[in-house]
Amino acid sequence: MSIAETYQQVIAWSKDVSLAGAIFEMLDWDLQVNLPKKGFARRSDQLAWIQGQRHRRLTDKEMVAKVYELADRMNELDADAQVNVREWKRALDRATKAPVELVEEIARHNSLTQGVWIEARKNSDFAKFAPYLEKTVDLQKQLASAWGFARPYDGLLDANEPFATEASIRALLDDLKARLVPFLHRIFGAKQYDASPIVGRNFPVDKQREFGLAVIGKLGFDFDGGRQDVSAHPFCTGTKGDVRITSRFFADDPRPSLFGMIHEAGHAMYEQGLPDDRLGTPLGESVSLGVHESQSRFWENIVGRSIPMWRYFYPEIKKAFPAALGDVPLETFHRCVNVVAPSLIRVEADEATYNLHIILRFEIERALLAGELRVADLPAAWNAKMKEYLDIAVPNDAEGVLQDVHWSLGSLGYFPTYTIGTLYGAQLWDKIRADMPGLEALIARGEFAPLLEWLRQHIHRYGKRYGGDELIERATGKKPTAEPFMNYLREKFGPLYGV
Ligand code: ZN
């Protein structure tokens, strides 16, 4: 068989695996959005079955052999094929190198640990969770080692952020921390304001939804290739042609639904911008969690919480909520959606302090995996860092070290992707502004198409061709650093806080 024939067979296999994944995603979307109570047992059988089919197809011995054969003959392939083969091999290294017994043990342990974590968090009882977390760390180390990584953190991180390493992330985050901590302490020492001028008023949920949909439509979300529904936790799923986002609503505060919708629409517009003719292959897939977050946070924070954005949309939102916002000036509203303050809970943190929550978790995870920190000492380490970075005392472990679901799911090496996305987003913003003088005037006129087009041209259309850092470097001409993000924060929050 010629190499071209082998490649075509592998393309067909890749599309099969991708199809099974897409079916799983739709069944899971339906579970989270529509499923009646009595349907859960049957649905989990369906999900497990399709997941099993996907795994069997993915690890089909004949196809695995063909992928490794192509990888051995890489120099005979064209550039596009090389990208696909590189990514297929990466996926198979993970799917086939870990012993089945280890994979099963991890699945068993994680589902057990999740239940323990829910109880431990409810009772703020870290001691109960600790032995399970110890085992999680041990199992995840074994997994990374089975994948062939000398440093466990590198392996776990690479699963979420391809080609990133502990060292590369550490350099980025150390740089950010050194600049961010003093800047935030200046803000914390300045005159504070809060969101009380709007929160607590009446924002009818049907109007919130209507307004949110109008906003994301204007930003460029394609409703012929996607839809929006309601779920307990907002998320984005699906593939090009059918990308689905979800939101949740609070009648006394429009911010979570509005910025949540813009955030998820940012993820969705990335998926909607992937190249049509590559679907079902790595060249038609998003790069990484970090690059995904660079898109969602870009639209949510950099664009969505900016003054030009609200110069355009403020008359509209006032029309939607005349009773609640009639007496609120634009500048007050803008402050209400840009409050910076230390807080205990990561998911409720603002765009500036959020990154310290991530840095704290990264430092703790890497120390745990390197054997420099014992699980038993984790709450003390957590609380000390909260004091040092955010100047905040942690009252109990439920609001401290036990707050996130990630560790209970065995997800280590995941948190940094949130901040990587934040830094990427600010670096893209810098470059877009340089490329498009008058961009802010365009936004203030409600003209978002040139902005989305820039992202389509420089980010979306490449699929997995480059790793995250390389993609951002190619798009901006510079290696990713924390500097553009710090400039962005200074430019935005300096005037708001007078620092
Ligand atoms: Zn996101």
Question: Could you outline the blueprint of secondary structure elements for this entry?
Answer:
Elements: H1 3-33, H2 40-58, H3 61-72, H4 79-97, H5 100-122, H6 126-146, H7 152-160, H8 166-189, H9 205-219, E1 226-230, E2 236-239, E3 242-247, H10 255-272, H11 289-303, H12 307-320, H13 322-325, H14 330-336, H15 354-369, H16 378-390, H17 416-435, H18 439-444, H19 449-458, H20 468-476, H21 483-497
Parallel strand pairs: 1-3
Antiparallel strand pairs: 2-3
The site of zinc ion has 4 residues, from helix 10 and helix 11.
Quick description:
By secondary structure, the protein is mainly alpha-helical.
Question: What does this protein structure show overall?
Answer:
The protein has 2 domains: 3-125; 166-497, Neurolysin, domain 3 (Orthogonal Bundle), CATH 1.10.1370.30. A hairpin with a 2-residue loop joins strand 2 and strand 3 (242-247). The protein is mostly helical. It is built from 21 helices and 3 strands. Strands 1-3-2 form a 3-stranded mixed β-sheet, sandwiched between helices. The longest helix is centred in the first third of the chain and has 31 residues, at 3-33. Residues 263, 267, 293, 296 line the site of zinc ion.
| Structural class based on helices, strands and sheet pairing | mainly alpha
- Mean pLDDT, all residues: 96
How many separate domains make up the residues? 2
Name the hetero compounds present. zinc ion
Query: What portion of residues is helical?
Result: 55-70%
Overall shape: it is globular
CATH architecture of the largest domain: Orthogonal Bundle
* Residue fraction in strands: under 5%
Radius of gyration: 23 Å
Largest sheet: 3 strands, mixed
Number of helices: 21
The CATH topology of the largest domain is given as: Neurolysin, domain 3
Give me the side-by-side strand order of the main sheet: 1-3-2
Number-wise, the strands total 3
Spatial gap, N to C terminus: 68 Å
CATH class descriptor of the largest domain: Mainly Alpha
Order of helices and strands: HHHHHHHHHEEEHHHHHHHHHHHH
